[in-house]
Design a protein that fits this description.
- It is a single chain.
- The chain has 218 residues and is mainly beta.
- The radius of gyration is 17 Å and the shape is globular.
- The protein binds manganese (II) ion (MN).
- The site of manganese (II) ion has 7 residues, from loops.
Length: 218
Protein backbone atom coordinates (compact mmCIF):
# COMPACT_ATOMS: atom_id res chain seq x y z
CA UNK A 1 0.00 0.00 0.00
CA UNK A 2 1.32 3.43 -0.91
CA UNK A 3 1.02 6.05 1.77
CA UNK A 4 -0.62 9.28 0.62
CA UNK A 5 1.81 12.15 0.08
CA UNK A 6 0.58 14.98 2.26
CA UNK A 7 0.60 18.55 1.00
CA UNK A 8 1.66 19.74 4.46
CA UNK A 9 2.33 18.28 7.91
CA UNK A 10 -0.99 17.46 9.62
CA UNK A 11 -1.83 19.06 12.94
CA UNK A 12 -0.76 16.83 15.85
CA UNK A 13 -3.62 14.81 17.38
CA UNK A 14 -5.20 16.51 20.40
CA UNK A 15 -4.29 14.52 23.52
CA UNK A 16 -5.25 14.54 27.18
CA UNK A 17 -3.04 12.96 29.86
CA UNK A 18 -4.55 10.02 31.75
CA UNK A 19 -3.58 10.57 35.39
CA UNK A 20 -1.23 8.00 36.91
CA UNK A 21 -0.90 5.85 33.77
CA UNK A 22 1.62 7.54 31.46
CA UNK A 23 -1.04 7.18 28.73
CA UNK A 24 -2.56 9.90 26.59
CA UNK A 25 -6.22 9.87 25.49
CA UNK A 26 -6.57 10.92 21.83
CA UNK A 27 -9.56 13.23 21.46
CA UNK A 28 -11.93 12.75 18.50
CA UNK A 29 -14.97 14.94 19.24
CA UNK A 30 -16.16 17.23 22.03
CA UNK A 31 -19.89 17.18 22.72
CA UNK A 32 -21.32 19.81 25.08
CA UNK A 33 -24.67 19.85 26.88
CA UNK A 34 -26.55 23.15 27.12
CA UNK A 35 -28.49 24.33 30.17
CA UNK A 36 -28.11 21.29 32.39
CA UNK A 37 -28.38 23.13 35.73
CA UNK A 38 -31.64 24.93 36.51
CA UNK A 39 -29.98 27.93 38.21
CA UNK A 40 -27.65 28.49 35.23
CA UNK A 41 -30.54 28.20 32.75
CA UNK A 42 -32.30 30.89 34.79
CA UNK A 43 -29.27 33.22 34.85
CA UNK A 44 -29.12 32.90 31.04
CA UNK A 45 -32.77 33.95 30.84
CA UNK A 46 -34.35 30.56 30.16
CA UNK A 47 -35.29 27.25 31.68
CA UNK A 48 -33.65 23.83 31.58
CA UNK A 49 -34.99 21.35 29.04
CA UNK A 50 -36.50 18.39 30.81
CA UNK A 51 -37.82 16.61 27.69
CA UNK A 52 -34.33 15.89 26.39
CA UNK A 53 -30.81 17.25 26.81
CA UNK A 54 -29.47 19.18 23.81
CA UNK A 55 -25.99 19.37 22.40
CA UNK A 56 -23.50 21.56 20.61
CA UNK A 57 -19.97 20.63 19.58
CA UNK A 58 -16.41 21.90 19.83
CA UNK A 59 -13.65 20.81 17.47
CA UNK A 60 -11.08 18.44 18.97
CA UNK A 61 -8.38 20.76 17.58
CA UNK A 62 -9.77 23.51 19.84
CA UNK A 63 -8.80 21.55 22.96
CA UNK A 64 -6.46 23.44 25.26
CA UNK A 65 -4.59 21.27 27.77
CA UNK A 66 -4.71 22.49 31.37
CA UNK A 67 -1.56 24.09 32.69
CA UNK A 68 -0.50 25.90 29.52
CA UNK A 69 -1.25 29.64 29.40
CA UNK A 70 -4.47 30.39 27.50
CA UNK A 71 -4.32 33.39 25.14
CA UNK A 72 -7.35 35.71 25.44
CA UNK A 73 -9.20 34.96 22.19
CA UNK A 74 -9.79 37.54 19.47
CA UNK A 75 -13.18 38.96 18.49
CA UNK A 76 -14.62 39.26 22.00
CA UNK A 77 -14.76 41.67 24.91
CA UNK A 78 -16.58 39.20 27.17
CA UNK A 79 -14.77 35.88 27.62
CA UNK A 80 -16.55 33.81 30.29
CA UNK A 81 -15.85 30.63 32.28
CA UNK A 82 -18.15 27.61 32.56
CA UNK A 83 -16.84 24.81 34.78
CA UNK A 84 -18.14 21.37 33.84
CA UNK A 85 -17.77 17.66 34.60
CA UNK A 86 -16.30 15.95 31.52
CA UNK A 87 -16.90 12.31 30.60
CA UNK A 88 -14.34 10.62 28.33
CA UNK A 89 -15.98 7.77 26.43
CA UNK A 90 -14.67 4.34 25.51
CA UNK A 91 -15.89 1.44 23.37
CA UNK A 92 -19.67 1.44 23.02
CA UNK A 93 -19.86 5.05 24.16
CA UNK A 94 -19.71 4.16 27.85
CA UNK A 95 -17.70 6.19 30.40
CA UNK A 96 -13.97 5.39 30.23
CA UNK A 97 -12.65 8.28 32.32
CA UNK A 98 -13.52 11.59 33.91
CA UNK A 99 -12.12 15.12 34.06
CA UNK A 100 -12.95 18.70 34.99
CA UNK A 101 -13.21 21.11 32.06
CA UNK A 102 -13.85 24.74 31.22
CA UNK A 103 -16.30 25.51 28.41
CA UNK A 104 -14.78 28.92 27.61
CA UNK A 105 -17.38 31.11 25.93
CA UNK A 106 -17.24 34.37 23.97
CA UNK A 107 -20.46 35.50 25.66
CA UNK A 108 -20.96 38.67 23.60
CA UNK A 109 -20.80 36.66 20.38
CA UNK A 110 -23.20 34.09 21.85
CA UNK A 111 -25.68 36.81 22.82
CA UNK A 112 -25.56 38.26 19.29
CA UNK A 113 -26.01 34.80 17.75
CA UNK A 114 -29.00 34.06 19.98
CA UNK A 115 -30.61 37.38 19.13
CA UNK A 116 -30.17 36.80 15.41
CA UNK A 117 -31.19 33.10 15.73
CA UNK A 118 -27.82 32.05 14.31
CA UNK A 119 -25.54 29.15 15.32
CA UNK A 120 -23.29 29.49 18.37
CA UNK A 121 -20.13 28.19 16.73
CA UNK A 122 -18.09 31.40 16.87
CA UNK A 123 -19.01 31.82 20.54
CA UNK A 124 -18.13 28.29 21.61
CA UNK A 125 -15.90 26.60 19.05
CA UNK A 126 -12.65 28.52 18.60
CA UNK A 127 -8.95 27.97 19.36
CA UNK A 128 -8.56 27.25 23.07
CA UNK A 129 -12.33 27.10 23.67
CA UNK A 130 -12.21 23.75 25.51
CA UNK A 131 -9.82 23.66 28.49
CA UNK A 132 -9.77 20.19 30.02
CA UNK A 133 -7.78 18.72 32.89
CA UNK A 134 -6.18 15.27 33.14
CA UNK A 135 -8.47 12.26 32.79
CA UNK A 136 -8.94 9.94 35.76
CA UNK A 137 -10.12 6.37 35.09
CA UNK A 138 -11.78 5.67 38.44
CA UNK A 139 -14.48 8.10 39.50
CA UNK A 140 -18.12 7.76 40.44
CA UNK A 141 -20.13 10.97 39.97
CA UNK A 142 -22.62 11.46 42.78
CA UNK A 143 -23.04 14.59 44.91
CA UNK A 144 -19.44 15.84 44.65
CA UNK A 145 -19.20 19.59 44.41
CA UNK A 146 -18.15 21.19 41.15
CA UNK A 147 -16.44 24.56 41.74
CA UNK A 148 -14.64 27.33 39.87
CA UNK A 149 -12.33 29.90 41.41
CA UNK A 150 -10.86 32.95 39.69
CA UNK A 151 -7.68 34.17 41.42
CA UNK A 152 -8.84 32.20 44.47
CA UNK A 153 -12.33 33.77 44.60
CA UNK A 154 -15.21 31.30 44.44
CA UNK A 155 -17.42 32.00 41.39
CA UNK A 156 -19.30 28.76 40.71
CA UNK A 157 -20.27 25.98 43.10
CA UNK A 158 -22.89 23.25 42.88
CA UNK A 159 -23.21 19.54 43.59
CA UNK A 160 -23.19 17.26 40.54
CA UNK A 161 -26.57 16.02 41.77
CA UNK A 162 -28.00 19.38 40.64
CA UNK A 163 -27.63 18.29 36.99
CA UNK A 164 -31.02 18.16 35.25
CA UNK A 165 -29.77 15.24 33.12
CA UNK A 166 -27.37 12.85 34.82
CA UNK A 167 -24.54 11.22 32.87
CA UNK A 168 -26.57 8.11 32.03
CA UNK A 169 -29.43 10.25 30.69
CA UNK A 170 -27.06 12.43 28.65
CA UNK A 171 -25.33 9.42 27.11
CA UNK A 172 -28.63 7.71 26.31
CA UNK A 173 -29.77 10.75 24.31
CA UNK A 174 -26.37 11.27 22.69
CA UNK A 175 -26.43 7.67 21.43
CA UNK A 176 -29.74 8.43 19.70
CA UNK A 177 -28.05 11.14 17.63
CA UNK A 178 -24.47 9.94 17.08
CA UNK A 179 -22.34 6.81 17.37
CA UNK A 180 -20.29 7.82 20.43
CA UNK A 181 -17.09 5.92 21.08
CA UNK A 182 -13.43 6.12 22.09
CA UNK A 183 -12.02 9.64 21.85
CA UNK A 184 -15.35 11.36 22.39
CA UNK A 185 -15.62 13.80 25.31
CA UNK A 186 -18.88 15.04 26.77
CA UNK A 187 -18.96 18.33 28.69
CA UNK A 188 -22.03 17.96 30.88
CA UNK A 189 -23.10 21.58 31.44
CA UNK A 190 -22.30 24.31 33.93
CA UNK A 191 -23.86 25.49 37.19
CA UNK A 192 -24.82 29.11 37.90
CA UNK A 193 -22.21 31.82 38.47
CA UNK A 194 -20.65 32.12 35.02
CA UNK A 195 -18.84 35.40 34.47
CA UNK A 196 -16.11 37.32 32.68
CA UNK A 197 -12.36 36.76 32.96
CA UNK A 198 -9.43 38.74 31.64
CA UNK A 199 -5.71 38.63 31.00
CA UNK A 200 -3.72 37.79 34.14
CA UNK A 201 -6.58 35.81 35.74
CA UNK A 202 -5.94 32.27 36.95
CA UNK A 203 -8.90 29.89 36.73
CA UNK A 204 -9.16 26.75 38.82
CA UNK A 205 -11.94 24.25 38.26
CA UNK A 206 -12.33 21.49 40.84
CA UNK A 207 -14.45 18.45 41.64
CA UNK A 208 -13.61 16.28 44.65
CA UNK A 209 -11.82 13.12 43.53
CA UNK A 210 -10.67 14.50 40.14
CA UNK A 211 -7.50 16.34 39.13
CA UNK A 212 -8.20 20.11 39.03
CA UNK A 213 -8.12 22.08 35.80
CA UNK A 214 -5.93 25.17 36.17
CA UNK A 215 -5.22 27.76 33.50
CA UNK A 216 -3.93 31.32 33.37
CA UNK A 217 -5.25 33.74 30.76
CA UNK A 218 -2.62 35.82 28.99
MN1 LIG B 1 -21.25 24.94 28.87
Amino acid sequence: MTLPRLAFAPAPPPLLPVAGTGLSYPVRRIFCVGRNYEAHAAEMGGTADREAPWFFLKSAQHLHPAGADLPYPPGTADLQHEVELVVALGEGGVPWGWAVGLDMTRRDLQARAKEARRPWDVAKDYEGGAVIGPILRNFEPAAQELALRVNGDLRQRAPLSDMVWDVAGILRHLAGLYAPGPGDLVMTGTPAGVGPVGRGDTLEGTCAGLPPVVVRIV
